[in-house]
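U., I forgot to send this yesterday:
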Amino acid sequence: MRRGYGLAWIGLLIGLLAAHAAPAATIDNVRLSDEDDRTRVVFDLDQVPEHRVFTLPDPHRVVIDFEGVELGAADLPRGGVLDGIRTGRQEGGGLRVVLDVSREVEARSFVIGGGDDGGQRLVVDLGGKQGERRQAVRSASERETREVIVAIDAGHGGVDPGAIGPDGTFEKDVVLEVSRQLYDLMKEAQGLRPLMVREGDYYMNLRDRTRVAREGNADIFLSIHADGAENPNVKGASVYALSLDGATSEQARVLARRENAADFIGGVSLEDKDDTVVSVLVDLSRGHTIEASLEMGEYLLPQLDRHADLLRNRVDQAGFAVLKSLDMPSLLIELGFLTNPEEERRLNTRSYQRDLAEGIVAGVREYAERHILPELRMADAGQNGQREHEVQRGENLSVIAQRYEVSTERLREVNDLSGDQIRAGSTLVIP
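Result:
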């Protein structure tokens, strides 16, 4: 009997160990899209993956190391700059995914969806090295393209001081000073036009902040804050985007709860059900807005890292009310922790404020040049001049026709093509 019990316990222990060693996440599907100078690889998972992405030369490839992840997808796509996908197990049991690419690329990755219940997506963008972007759409009217309007929202204000440092520094004062420096720098930056949301020390509810951005036809929304924590040793700047599935960290969850409660300080409830809320719900269905926000955050992080300590080397997500009613790329930027004595001192110095502003402007400008200005140029070209498209690898005539909402027959006629064959690097006139 004792031996039987012993065997039973051994079996139970083996079962528990096997369950403990089971992968924490599964890659259910791998998808690919290719447009302009970027090939996007999307991994659909059932949980948030722990991963690391890096590139290797000779031959060029992008490596993704997953911890506690199993490959469940049967089909691994190829296209664009991606020649193929290989997988294998490392000595420690981790899954290695190798993306074989046809040339040297810059790899950017971010996770969409941060909750425990819904599915997650790891997005890996493969594009040209920084400063080597090829212009896919050109026009004689490019010089007339309007500037990218950036709404700068200094958080809190008036009766709402925000976080308070040990020496009595108010968050509302620090973020207003940094926002003013952002405004001055963006006025000098080619292609950007700043729009101040809060210009002085007064209270604004969250709806008024987004209204100012909308009425100003903003293309980008930046909400500037300085964090606070019970632990005075916590420090570091951070970047947040909206999440529909939940917060990606406890810090993000706590921060969103605190920032969303700011409306109650001014006596305004977030629980009304008027037309604005209906508009918010419509906007929330636009997943591409969150995706664009996360992408913009990936440009900001390395620029902030040049001047400040980072709390985390990723874009976090949470349900920020100030970001919810915006159908434009929107980020909440925490400049640091006022409750940390060292960071309070630094955040009060004009030189450090200027450094932070320069980092934010550099990241926004790079994102705008790569993702917003080309679209504006294409729109202007359609109104004021002849549109042209430089054919990228992996594109065909049908795909290009659908993108510009013209028929393939019309494309052949305008470009004097006898068939559907087109060559990468050639230029098509878009009617």
